[in-house]
Amino acid sequence: MTSFEEAETEETVTCLHMTFYHPCQEHKMMFRCLNFCKREQVRADELAKFGRDSNICRYNLMDTRVSRVQFSLQFYRKLNSSEFCFEIKNMSKKTKLVVDQTELGYLNKIDLPWKCIICFGDYQILAETQEGESVDYFETYLHLAEVPILQERCLPSLQPIPENGLSSSLFPSQGKSPIEIDENE
Question: Which domains are present in the chain?
Answer without folding.
Answer: 15-144 (2.60.200.20)
